Fold this sequence. Notes:
Mean pLDDT: 92
Strand order of the largest sheet: 16-12-14-13-19-20-18-21
Structural class: alpha+beta
CATH topology of the largest domain: Alpha-Beta Plaits
Helix content: 25-40%
Strand content: 15-25%
Largest sheet: 8 strands, antiparallel
Number of domains: 2
CATH class of the largest domain: Alpha Beta
Shape: globular
CATH architecture of the largest domain: 2-Layer Sandwich
Amino acid sequence: MAATNTVQNSLNSTRLSGWGNYPKLDCRVYFQRRIEDLQELLGTASSSLIARGLGRSYGDSAVNSDGVLLQRTRDRFLSFDVNSGCITCEAGVSLEEIIQVALPKGWFLPTTPGTKFVTVGGAIAADVHGKNHHRDGTWGQYVRRFSLMVAEGAILECSPQDNAEVFWATVGGMGLTGIILEATLQLTRVPSAYVDVHQRRAGNLGELFDLFLETDEQYKYSVAWIDCLSQGSKLGRSVLLLGNDASAELVQNSGIRQPFVLPGKRSKSIPLQLPGLAMNKLAIKTFNSLYYRRHRDKQLLVDFDSYFYPLDSVHHWNRIYGKRGFVQYQALFPRKWSQEAMTRLLEIISKSGQASFLAVLKSSGAANQGLLSYLFDGHTLALDFPYRGEKTDRLCRQLDEVMLEFDGRVYLAKDALVSAGTFSQMYPQLEEFKRIKKRLDPETLFRSHQSDRVGITCAP
């Protein structure tokens, strides 16, 4: 009977990838919703699996040819205290759905990645961060508790106080400790659904770092777009978007009557994958030049959707990179070496001729206790490269060398290429994570294509 139930709730050979559309794998997909069915699945599983939410991790962290468990089916709200801002929901609830419920009541996400199409379970597993990390930290710091089903089918209640070791292995643990079932989150009060944005241009990377140093304490949010193809004295020329929550008074004085209502927008869609040549060096260089010239120093009132999620309005924007997809390389360096290290990265990229359409730099604050959590005090640069096979592999290996030289690291939620040897040098608490995983999952039931590649787990 157990085998029949498993077959009825699975689809064989479903082709899946991360948001970067590289790599693509044929995966067996499971849809169990009930706790009892999940426990039965784990108890009868003959191979490994990994939980998957909305598929917005970029590389191969949520694909596994043996089995992928779709958590989107567990998507109920369980409670919301509008006085305290504590919300409890199942792991398949998306950030978009939380915003729809909480923002009209004056509450918002304490920190948010660049897309709202992420599940709560995925946000915990990747310990996501946003434009306010230098002030407010990562997602895991606002998780009050969660329920975790481990390999044997038992459910652990985890918080910073109870099962704390498991809690901090799961926050940033990329789904490798078990299946997150539900979570309680602390939201943050906001005075409106708008950001008071100050836009500043920097003529090169040195000017940009001076601006970060000058403004980090003044602004809650900061993010810079970088022209990664500029060279010489213009290397790293940028547009920095600084922001604070806009007061209700400022919003209403701007003629907006409902400060907590997001303006309706017409979304666009990329209907099919474009030819790979659409993202060539000339096209990106032209775009970068026009973008930099157009964005001059000024003050703006920007709604949350436009400031935090500018690409969400373009559905399937990942298709612009063509059938071969793209990889995102997100580099993090300690603050004392950030400028020197990023100068080296940009010089290598510029000389390679492999342009990044999206190049974003942010300031980061202190690390949390997550064993595989990404950020520490420094700066992070995210770069999107159309995947060109060995040519892209070679470029990323060059960038890896710079990362190791300057004590940097890549972000597992974005990575598709880093080797096991390189990864182990970037994450000093890796062995401690493996020890906890071994205790929770002695047979390595939970593994992904990525976890095998970077050496967290071993393929059978």
